[in-house]
Each structure stands twice: as structure tokens, then as C-alpha cells.
Amino acid sequence: AQSVTQPDIHITVSEGASLELRCNYSYGATPYLFWYVQSPGQGLQLLLKYFSGDTLVQGIKGFEAEFKRSQSSFNLRKPSVHWSDAAEYFCAVAQEYGNKLVFGAGTILRVKS
Amino acid sequence: GAVVSQHPSWVICKSGTSVKIECRSLDFQATTMFWYRQFPKQSLMLMATSNEGSKATYEQGVEKDKFLINHASLTLSTLTVTSAHPEDSSFYICSASSGAGSPLHFGNGTRLTVT
């Protein structure tokens, strides 16, 4: 069965600092990996996705993520965080594109000025 | 881009009543829809998968008689919470896809509060 682990429940960074959110997955085959962002009381917005090819994927809002098969990781990064990035971030895995997602527990990002 | 409209965005109901949540795909044919539930400060848990014209497939532990899912057309799926109780209070989110290999699009969610 697929599973996703986001080890950090909360992360606080200063505005302008770099950010890395960790995600580890468990899946036997090549996974479809996603990062979503959710603002309070809102739905989910897709930041980026990985299916195959270049292991460093670029997303919206200046985010990127790197797929590392050897570590079963798909960490999300941003070089300089903005106050508007404060939200909850979910890593997710699917067996195929368009199929059901298994989500991690989420990481709440706080940005301090 | 593709849009999924979920309605209502929030609802308050009394214990014992039923509530219907609609999920519509506005500009594509959603052959598959997924319903998720998110309790406060928790992740999204898949409740069920529905394919147009077929019975929904429920995840383990989800009561199919309590959470009725209907996917009668390619643009509409509904989730009805029957005989709602306070423990059903949660954030319900739908997502829709035009099939395997196509992107998933999420609705903005419905906040259900049962008093």
C-alpha cells in the first residue's frame, strides 16, 4: 500500500529565508508525486508534480521539488519565502495520473517577518 | 483551466438531518470523482471513488449507508451525509478527473458543522 510521511508538522521560517519541506513515500513502483498547498478553509492548489524524467521539477510560485528514488523522497524547496507562502502543504502520491491520491499529514508553514 | 465547483461552501445542520454536497465539473467531463474528508488539523482521507453511472467504491471504514454518493452524470457527483451527527462535522473536498492519465481538479471544499 502507498503511504506518505511528512515528518515536520510545523515549520517556521523568516521571510526571505530558504525553505525545505520534507516528504518520504512508500510505493513499490514508480510513483506519481504531488505537492499541494491549502490556505485555511480553502481547497487544494497544485504546486507541482513529478511523473518521470528530470528529477528536479519546477512549480508555481517559485517552488521546486526534487525526486530522489534512492531516498524515496520528494522534498519541496523555495529559495526565498514570502509572507504569503504561509499555509499548509501536503505531499501526495498516486499510482497513476488522475487516480486517487494518498496524502501525507501535512506541514504547516509559518512565516515570520 | 478546468474548474470544479463544490456547493455549498459551508453548511450548518441539526443532528439527525441529512445534508447534500454537490461537486460539479464546469468545463470537462468528470468520469471519476473522489470524495475526501479532512478533520481539523489532519490530512485528507479518501472516503470513496465514484465513476459515472456506477456504484461508488468506499474505502475501508467508511459507512456507505451513511455517506451516499451519486454520480449520475459526467458533470455532477453528490455526497449526502444521512442522519448527520456532530462527529460528522468535517471539511469535505471533492476532486474530479476525466480519467486515468488526466489531471485531478479539486473543489474548494465544504465545511459541515452538525449541531
- Quaternary structure annotation: heterodimer
Helix content of chain A: under 10%
Low-confidence runs of chain B: none
Shape of chain B: globular
Total DSSP helices of chain B: 0
Which features does this protein show?
heterodimer; A: 113 residues; mainly beta; six-stranded mixed beta sheet; four-stranded antiparallel beta sheet; 0% helix; 52% strand; B: 115 residues; seven-stranded mixed beta sheet; 11 strands; globular
Please outline what is shown here:
The complex is a heterodimer of chains A (113) and B (115). By secondary structure, chain A is an all-beta fold. Chain A has no helices and twelve strands.
Outline the secondary-structure elements.
The complex is a heterodimer of chains A (113) and B (115).
Chain A: E1 3-5, E2 10-14, E3 19-21, E4 24-26, E5 32-38, E6 44-50, E7 56-58, E8 64-68, E9 73-78, E10 87-94, E11 101-103, E12 107-112
Parallel strand pairs in A: 2-12
Antiparallel strand pairs in A: 1-4, 3-9, 5-6, 5-10, 7-8, 8-9, 10-11, 10-12
Chain B: E1 4-7, E2 10-13, E3 19-25, E4 32-38, E5 44-51, E6 57-58, E7 67-73, E8 76-81, E9 90-97, E10 105-106, E11 110-114
Parallel strand pairs in B: 2-11
Antiparallel strand pairs in B: 1-3, 3-8, 4-5, 4-9, 5-6, 7-8, 9-10, 9-11
Provide structural commentary.
The complex is a heterodimer of chains A (113) and B (115). In chain A, a hairpin with a 5-residue loop joins β5 (32-38) and β6 (44-50). Chain A is globular. In chain A, strands 2, 5, 6, 10, 11 and 12 form a six-stranded mixed sheet that branches. Chain A has a four-stranded antiparallel sheet with strand order 3-9-8-7, with no helix packed on it. A two-stranded antiparallel sheet of chain A has the order 1-4. The mean pLDDT of chain A is 93. Chain A has no helices and twelve strands. Helices cover 0% and strands 52% of the residues of chain A. In chain A, 34% of the residues are buried. By secondary structure, chain A is an all-beta fold. Chain B has 115 residues and is mainly beta. Chain B is 0% helix and 52% strand. Chain B is built from no helices and eleven strands. In chain B, strands 2, 4, 5, 6, 9, 10 and 11 form a seven-stranded mixed sheet that branches. Chain B has a four-stranded antiparallel sheet with strand order 1-3-8-7, with no helix packed on it. The radius of gyration of chain B is 13 Å and the shape is globular. The N and C termini of chain B lie far apart (37 Å). The mean pLDDT of chain B is 92. Chain A binds chain B through residues 36, 41-46, 90, 96-106, and chain B through 6, 32, 34, 42-46, 49, 91, 93, 95, 97-104, 106-109, 111.
